[in-house]
Amino acid sequence: MKYVIILGDGMADYRQPSLGGKTPLMLAKKPYIDALAKVSEVGLCKTVPCGMKPGSDVANLSVLGYNPHDCYTGRSPLEAASIGINLKDTDVTARANLVTVSDEKVYSDKTMIDYSAGEISTEEAKELIEFLAKEINDDVYKLYAGISYRHCLVVDNGVVAGDFTPPHDITGKPVKEYLPESEQGKKLLLLMEKSYELLKDHPVNKRRIANGKRPANSLWFWGEGTKPALEKFEDKFSLKGGIISAVDLLKGIGKLADMRVIEVDGATGNYDTNFSGKAQACLDAIDDGLDLVYLHMEAPDECGHHGDAEHKIYSIEQIDEKVVKPVIEGLKVRGEDFAVLICPDHPTPISIMTHCSDPVPYLIYRSNTVINSGATCYDEEQAEKTGIFIERGYELMQKLIKG
């Protein structure tokens, strides 16, 4: 038996007046997924435990079968693992976004313009982070370059401040109310202020502005944590697993769980990603001996954060046409029984442009069993109508594997 999880990050949503009272999942043309829904188990699953923030870290751990209450130590340590940072038990890490803030002289007077600095390229970002590292790195603080706007700060013998806000939660808002006030937080705030002074006139940003792009003119820290420990995926589920994703967070989870992390050329983490390449990499990994592949697409989440309904719908349609269809048909050709789980990790509604903790619709298709849950298609409303509900998200993996 082979297993594939096709995860559309942030794919679920709320009904939007601007979309005629429908959600992107309802409007998207996804004939292949909708056909599967009629012969699959369809229901709702709560991937974010009560009392925990609805981050992709917590939610993806749940879908992968790990109880976040048992293993979660913060988002940035997971990303640090992907970058290849060897953390000490006394290290504290923080996600370091390259962001665009407004140009008021006093930092607390600024507004968060763009949490991703206009989806800055990895090449440009690396140049900026390496420049900042020369000015900031010392015996306590060290900056490491990641992908696009996503980077990492490691604090030696650090303390988790606990009062930083994800920048995608405050797009368009003044930063004043979201600046840290703890002792450790204020130390990192000084680094953020210093980064603005260093970056505002950097040649990379001058070129970006000249080309009509947003400058990456500040660091913004959030998602702090300490060194995590995950049980090996194969030991936990007796399956050889792999992860395909464009983002450091998922790659880090994969590395910590001792899963195979599979790189795909042209995987960007946005709606221009190489959907077809990811699907083929999934099938190749199955052929190469993996029992389970976790195929993660970031695109719907990024569109949700930007309030971009058009491209969120487009991303869902691309997942249907270029991922779900070729993966299902490819597995059928291979002749072995298989099961496929399709779901988001959490909703990222375009109306609020950030994550929420609402349950997500899921679909489990089995090649050797026809299941009639009563769903006529795959969306939030149909999943709720079936009456099937998984309260503990980490049990979804066992349901996929054991039925």
Structural overview:
- With 403 residues, the protein is an alpha/beta fold.
- The chain folds into 2 domains: 2-72 and 229-402, Alkaline Phosphatase, subunit A, CATH 3.40.720; 82-226, no CATH class.
- Helices cover 36% and strands 19% of the residues.
- It has helices at 24-27, 31-37, 56-63, 68-71, 75-83, 122-136, 183-199, 203-210, 233-237, 248-256, 275-287, 299-305, 309-334, 380-385, 396-402; strands at 2-8, 41-45, 92-101, 112-114, 141-147, 150-155, 218-226, 241-244, 260-262, 292-297, 338-343, 360-366, 389-390.
- The chain has an 8-stranded mixed β-sheet with strand order 9-8-10-1-11-12-2-13, sandwiched between helices. Strands 3, 4, 5, 6 and 7 form a 5-stranded antiparallel β-sheet that branches.
- Strand 8, helix 10 and strand 9 form a beta-alpha-beta unit.
- Helix 12 packs antiparallel against helix 13 (309-334).
- The chain is globular.
- It starts with a strand and ends with a helix.
- 50% of the residues are buried.
Layout: helices, strands, pairs:
Elements: E1 2-8, H1 24-27, H2 31-37, E2 41-45, H3 56-63, H4 68-71, H5 75-83, E3 92-101, E4 112-114, H6 122-136, E5 141-147, E6 150-155, H7 183-199, H8 203-210, E7 218-226, H9 233-237, E8 241-244, H10 248-256, E9 260-262, H11 275-287, E10 292-297, H12 299-305, H13 309-334, E11 338-343, E12 360-366, H14 380-385, E13 389-390, H15 396-402
Parallel strand pairs: 1-10, 1-11, 2-13, 8-9, 8-10
Antiparallel strand pairs: 2-12, 3-4, 3-6, 3-7, 5-6, 11-12
Helix pairs in contact: 5-10, 11-13, 12-13
